[in-house]
Amino acid sequence: MEFFERFAIPHPSIAIYASMVAAGLTLIAVLAGLTYFKKWGYLWREWITTVDHKRIGIMYLISALLMLFRGGVDAIMMRAQLAVPDNKLLDSQHYNEIFTTHGVVMILFMAMPFIIFFMNFVIPLQIGARDVAFPRLNALSFWLFFMGAMLFNISFMVGGSPDAGWTSYFPLADTDSVGTNYYMIAIQIAGIGTLMTGINFMTTILKMRAPGMTLMKMPMFTWSAFIANVIIVFAFPVLTVALAFGTMDQLFGTQFFTLDNGGMAMLWANLFWVWGHPEVYILILPAFGIYSEIISTFSKRNLYGYKSMVASMVLISVLSFVVWAHHFFTMGQGAMANSIFSITTMAIAVPTGVKIFNWILTLWKGKIEFTTPMLYSILFIPLFTLGGVTGVMLAMSAADYQYHNTMFLVAHFHNVIIPGVVFAMLAGLTYYWPKMFGFMLNERIGKWTAWLLSIGFLLAFMPMYVTGLDGQARRMYTYSESTGFGPMNMVSFVGAAIMAIGFVLIVYNIYYSVRYASRDISADPWDARTLEWATHTPVPHYNFAITPEVASSEAYWDYKKKNHELYKGDYEKIHMPNNSGIPFVMSCIFFGWGFSLIFSLWIPAIITTIGIFVCMTLRSFEKDHGHYVSVKEIEDTESELRGA
Ligand code: HEM
Ligand SMILES: [Cu+2]
């Protein structure tokens, strides 16, 4: 009996039971559907074992959209709880669990995969490559991320969610329940996947660019992703180590982050933010890259200030590593340290400001076309700037004693992350949708969504600045009527509900467009400028029949307007990597390994550890040199696509 008690959830509620039933039914429906329509083989051959960067990208996208809704449900539950004073919808424990899972899911399992989706789908096409440098590693990255995310997501049904915030500060996180184990181990598994992504894309961008594409001729999204991946390679190992120490504290009673026996609880906070602050730049820089592409395309001109864009991103990446202590100005590290971290933090506003001026100047001289992606990008500029300004306010360490751990901070980071990252994701999704699927998303619904999200966003988050300054603390599950926070929090709830409608509209748009959108569109429906639009839609699995030769960062524009020849020479056979089941199998074993550790099931933990090494050994001794696509096959594919 004692054995089974471990898996029970400590704080059950109707909502949790209902989601268990819903999750169970969905699983059964999916499995039954796959069996009924005989899709298992298709799923295995075309998706699970795929090493094609485009398909891996799409799997990242699907996961990110699912997680957007998981994190969104958490968000709306919190806003509903806070809508009125002394509310009893959620108790304190549930509130703790929900802000924790909301934060982790949104940052690590929603925003990260969304950005990695763009990197996967766009970068090889944008640099004229056939795939990433290490296609199989890419599949392993995805499956490790996916299994880590799934492991984290079952926590609320098996054993209980973590409840110490997405920052999981010790000693708060040091509890008897298994929640913190889930946090440490699930994020570890996903994080290893991300670290591999970083190495993979750094190599891809450095080594696999089309002839003629020097570094300063790379499109801006590729630049932004390159820098983000360099940051990943430097920042994620810190997280790996911190999580490993935390896991050992949890499972084996080591004393890295404890209060006694020489442990240092603040060490966790430092390590966490040495990773955590660069992490937010891993998200925002590619988002900036996406905006740059979109703003230039729909202003019908080249991006203003290319070199200063690159320089400012390089500067931001360096600064991002030297600001982490601004997350705990109030810990008492002294005036000197606080002053230094204040100044470095404020300094980030300078390169960021340069980028904003560059976008405005691009628009200034451009012929603006108001498509949905452009609408998001134009809304982004003022809304994001608002978040940037409140960031500078927070950077003043003396003033931060008032803002720290209040709703002001919550308003600030949502203010940069929603218009900054989420809008970029939605803009980019709309922009690249036709390249992925061969039809456009509906523009009318798309614009409605953009406006609803913007208005909802302002209503949801502006009041938090006010109540935060008045002293409403973050992570508090309720407040009394006498505080006077009630009306503002009600406005916030209405805003969150409007945003929820916006997110549902995205799903409706996908449904609507699948059914009604015209399939009769060109491979370049936006009249775009960069290489990814130079190939067919749908993109053949080898991307380009002949490797393009480029002379500027806008190679496709040159081809269209300046008669620059992209494809020289004849078809030659193309070398492509083979599919493999090992990444998926190995990641499943990782899932089992993580689960065993979370519940201290030592024998399964040992068996799965061996399993992981067996997979690695198998791979090492495998003789797989990929395959060739023959000239005949290329000719057939190309003529078929041209005819379509
Ligand atoms: C879509 C609308 C969203 C709403 C209404 C919302 C709402 C909230 C609320 C109410 C909290 C908890 C405040 C507290 O009591 O401390 C919170 C925390 C948080 N949110 Fe959101 N959120 C949204 C989207 C996002 C997105 C897109 C991200 C990141 C990509 C995000 C990341 C976070 C993080 C990291 C926390 C901190 C969790 C913690 O305190 O440990 N949120 N959000
Ligand atoms: Cu920071």
Describe the structure.
There is one protein chain. This protein has 644 residues and is mainly alpha-helical. The protein is built from 21 helices and two strands. The protein has helices at 2-5, 14-36, 40-48, 53-82, 92-126, 135-153, 179-207, 220-252, 265-299, 306-319, 335-347, 349-364, 372-395, 397-403, 407-437, 443-469, 486-516, 555-561, 582-598, 602-621, 631-643; strands at 574-576, 627-629. A two-stranded antiparallel sheet has the order 1-2. Helix 7 (179-207) runs antiparallel to helix 19, helix 9 (265-299) runs antiparallel to helix 13 (372-395) and helix 15 (407-437) packs antiparallel against helix 16 (443-469). It starts with a helix and ends with a helix. The mean pLDDT is 95. Residues 277, 323, 326-327 line the site of copper (II) ion (CU).
Please give a handful of descriptors for the protein shown.
binds copper (II) ion, binds protoporphyrin IX containing FE, 21 helices, two-stranded antiparallel ribbon, 68% helix, mainly alpha
